[in-house]
Amino acid sequence: MTMDRVLIGLDIGGTNVKIGLCAPDHTLLAYERIPTTAQDGPPAVVRRTVDAVRALLTSVGATMNDVTGCGVGAPGPIDHARGRIVEAPNLDGWVDVPLADLFADALSCRTILENDANVAAYGEFVAGAAARVRNMVMLTLGTGIGGGVIADGRLIRGAFGSGGEIGHLIVEPDGRPCPCGQRGCLERYASANAIAQIAAERLEAGRTSTLATTIATGKSVTSEDVARAAAADDPLALEVWQQAARYLALATVNLHRLLNPEQVVFAGGVIAAGPLLFDAIQSHFDALNWDLTPDKPVIAPAQLGEDAGLIGAAALAHDDSHC
Questions:
Q1: In terms of Cα–Cα distance, which of 310, 316, 312 is closest to 31?
Q2: pLDDT for position 2
Q3: What SS3 state is found at 88?
Q4: Which of 24, 199, 216, 264 has the least C-beta neighbours within 10 A?
Q5: Which regions in the chain score pLDDT beneath 50?
Q6: How far is it, in rounded angstroms, from Cα 175 to Cα 70?
Q7: Cα–Cα distance for residue pair 316/34, rounded to 1 Å
Q8: CA distances from 274 to 83, 301, 305 (A)
């Protein structure tokens, strides 16, 4: 295979490093996944990742001479300008890590570092659910809630690099405490963990539900359990599910007032619920949204799955001077 240009996309998580080779048109050419083993420290993780990158290049008939850039997505906070991880809660001991320089030195190519939620949003923007729009917001519903904002084709990072932290919008003043130090953050009400926790709290308070059978077997309630029970019209599960959907709709209305995006994309494991989630968000959005103008965003599921971060990181390595 002859390669004109190849972009490397890396998505570093607490469990795995996902590695992708992409063409400039954002086509994913090859993919690999290796264990992160973060406890070995950043230099060891970089060495193993670079070895896997070189093997992946060989597998498609390319070399480092064909590579024009590398994008790295990692959990934050991130100092994008300096290419450093400030502190990664799920990468134990990774504090003030010059990750962009470590990869740039090992690969001998230009490397940029970006927050993992931002690279996923950028991936959906260039090649996924929002590929035909210029303004979009993405919310990733997982353990917490990640976010990314694209305005007029540009990734919004903000003056201090913390732009797009949608999961920490305050939706309930003086509400549930969040590890970030605030109270009432969106992710404390509508993430996968929050949905499960709120359901479990109501069961412990004596509410009846088919979810009690999960507790009786010694298992913890999950957001998937709540979704299944809600789909079967379990009253407690429906209550918890609709509450989460209403908070997501509230955030969407506020984001629409502030940014006026063409599309709001939802990603993460919770979107596996399909219409149960999206119909509920849309219904609450319509009830909460103003009627001054007819404009409203398309609310849609993400399309790229786990590839979003790889594709977005590679695309940012190509487009970063414009972002």
A1: 310
A2: 46
A3: coil
A4: 216
A5: 1-2, 322
A6: 41
A7: 22
A8: 37, 8, 14
